[in-house]
Amino acid sequence: MHTCPMFDWEAAWHAALYGPGGFFARGEKPSAHFRTSPLVGPELAEALLTLLSRVDAALGFPPVVDFVDVGAGGGELAFAVRSLASGSLAARLRVTAVEVGPPVELPGVRWTSSVPPCVGLLVGHEWLDAIPCPVVTGPSADPWITRWWPALADGALAEVGAPRDAAWAAAVSSVRGAALAIDYGHLASSRRFTLTGYRGGQQVEPVFDGSCDITAHVAFDACAAAAGGDFVLVSQRDALRALGLSGSVRGSGWDWLESAARAGRIAELRDPSGLGGFGWLLHGNGVAVADLLPELPPWRPNPASFSTG
């Protein structure tokens, strides 16, 4: 990993992902490099449709209700939401995938390269972790570090999360309804340098030549404070259960087999040492978060998540 103090980490990171020949700019999709919740099965989309239906009701059932998937990758989540929607919601639903790379032709999904204003639910699923950040060495007088990384040791590296804070605050402000960030992350009490790479399903040393995805944990507390307003930060494990995904097995014969397979997928999504340890940062904008999720335990980072992407 490059350690020269004059190295411009943020510029190199941005070029490696989004510049000419960059990892995402040339059309690489996360599904080819690591397993994400939308790839497990339809259950995440089901839970988000339940959340969207609550947002829809809180908004008074507007004539058009949006689902916006920011950092959509191959559009798997957006397409699953479009495909599984039913009833009045399906008739009024507009699904938008936001991605800088080439769009994927999917029925019922429109593509754009920037976050649009919307009425409904915006989801940034593993989006914030791919926003490049400056990197500093302790000790540092950077204002973000001073506030959000209070125990940075001499000589230690740290990602400055200010660009993520700004991006999330802008996304939240673009929505009338709710905005949800789903990601792996840390809090001020557990900060550590996490920048890493992924290529072909393997965690690798990050290199800035466009050959791998480069990512780092999200400072959820800083993002939440930047966006402000009404919000909660809970675990994916708890949020999915609150949205109806419990993973019980029922029936017999073929029904039992399907139920068992579904239970296995839900268990993977709710595994506290894996995807279930992800944070869900949910902001209400014009709706009360209490109308969308019941009171749940606050999210705490799982140390095991520091080795996953």
From TrEMBL:
Molecular function (GO) terms for this protein are: methyltransferase activity
Is the keyword Glycoprotein assigned to this protein?
no
Pfam families per the record?
A: Methyltransf_28
Q: Which InterPro entries match?
A: NDUFAF7, NDUFAF7_sf, SAM-dependent_MTases_sf
Q: Which UniProt keywords apply?
A: Methyltransferase, Transferase
Q: Which GO terms describe its biological process?
A: methylation
Keyword presence, Transferase = yes
Can you say what this protein is called? SAM-dependent methyltransferase, MidA family
Please give the organism.
Lentzea albidocapillata
